[in-house]
Design brief:
single chain; 329 residues; alpha/beta; seven-stranded parallel sheet; six-stranded mixed sheet; 32% helix; elongated; binds NADPH dihydro-nicotinamide-adenine-dinucleotide phosphate; binds (2R)-2,3-dihydroxypropanoic acid
Length: 329
């Protein structure tokens, strides 16, 4: 069981989580849960305090888990379970050094995130937010041949940067819109790409040939700032850029210039740096930039399943058992 010498194991949750996960934590009846009981992130000081002496930590992508947090937790800490598939917020080298196991939530959010990526791509390419705005502000004077025209997917070339679980699910969803070619880039060619006739190409080819570019890679030292001035300058002037990975993959000053100068047609961002993006950020002054607040996995059912998986990872990890989804990197 999860008891050490008859004592309950201490678990710290950095946030409220959907009840599916809470049920699992209480059903086991052997861990003592303390929690930052809010829908907002725990302030850093509260995180450092709450984690003290914990055996298990359940965190969110907005919690930076670094040496300071691990030191604050102390030697009890055996398991970190993140309520996310991305793990760029975890200092994995420090975590491994201390022999701490990590759970995460791959697969269960792939469909929801791919669906959101398609919604964002279409909204951006067909200028839906601009259109909604014009209806409200009286800018809609009549039907006009070229008013609010955008770009369609028929006969287009789509480039996916990072054809992983989510990138592949995006490609599968875009194909039926009449996409002609699917290109992808990354470190290695993927055998499963054949399912969407995906062509593994050098990044420069992807940039010059794509009408739509979707970034769905993980944030790593190699992908940080990947989308910069040189990147945007290689894209078609008519191309649409979509990012659902992490904000830091994009150099936002360079993106602003590219959008402002007509170097590219439009951008749709589900992720930014920082999050939230300050309301006075230059990107928000541009009509051809659609920014949404990190909604990729935001369906009720997906968040429920993520909650259950994160809780089960934590419980199993504390018991020294296999986790449903253990991160092994
Ligand atoms: P996967 O690990 O399945 O896919 C990540 C892909 O990134 C891999 O295919 C990998 O390909 C690629 N990649 C890694 N390094 C590079 C590189 N240098 N250049 C190009 N591609 C690279 O993860 P998921 O698909 O499950 O998730 C991907 C990311 O999406 C997460 O890490 C997270 O940051 C983000 N995400 C965002 C969400 C949102 O709400 N907006 C929701 C869920 C996830 P290769 O091996 O060839 O390098
Ligand atoms: C993740 O899981 O990494 C997403 O960004 C949120 O679901």
């Amino acid at each position: 069981g999860m008891q050490i010498a008859g004592r309950l194991m201490k678990v710290f949750l950095t946030r409220r989580i959907p009840q599916e996960g809470m049920k699992i934590l209480s059903a086991t009846g052997v861990c003592e849960v303390s929690q930052w009981d809010s829908d907002e992130p725990a302030p850093r000081a509260e995180l450092l305090k709450g984690v003290q002496g914990a055996h298990g930590l359940l965190c969110m992508l907005s919690d930076k888990i670094d040496a300071e947090v691990l030191d604050a937790a102390g030697p009890n800490l055996k398991v970190i379970s993140t309520f996310s598939v991305g793990y760029d917020h975890l200092a994995m080298d420090e975590i491994k050094k201390r022999g701490i196991r990590v759970g995460y939530t791959p697969d269960v959010l792939t469909d929801a995130t791919a669906e959101l990526a398609v919604a964002l791509l279409l909204s951006t390419a067909r200028r839906l937010p601009e259109g909604v705005e014009e209806v409200k502000n009286g800018g809609w004077s009549s039907w006009k041949p070229l008013w609010l025209c955008g770009h369609g997917l028929s006969d287009s070339t789509v480039g996916i940067i990072g054809l992983g679980r989510i990138g592949m699910a995006i490609a599968q969803r875009l194909k039926p819109f009449g996409v002609k070619r699917v290109l992808y880039s990354g470190r290695t060619a993927k055998p499963y790409a054949a399912e969407v006739n995906g062509e593994f190409v050098p990044l420069d080819t992807l940039l010059s040939d794509s009408d739509f570019i979707v970034v769905s890679c993980s944030l790593t030292p190699q992908t940080q700032g990947l989308c910069d001035k040189a990147f945007f300058s290689k894209m078609k002037k008519s191309a649409i850029f979509v990012n659902i990975s992490r904000g830091a993959v994009v150099n936002q000053e360079d993106l602003y210039e590219a959008l402002k100068n007509g170097q590219i047609a439009a951008a749709g961002l589900d992720v930014t740096t920082p999050e939230p993006l300050p309301t006075n950020h230059p990107l928000l002054t541009l009509k051809n930039c659609v920014v949404i607040p990190h909604l990729g996995s935001a369906t009720y059912s997906t968040r429920g399943v993520m909650s259950a998986l994160a809780a089960q990872n934590l419980v199993n990890g504390l018991q020294g058992a296999d986790m449903p989804s253990e991160l092994t990197v």
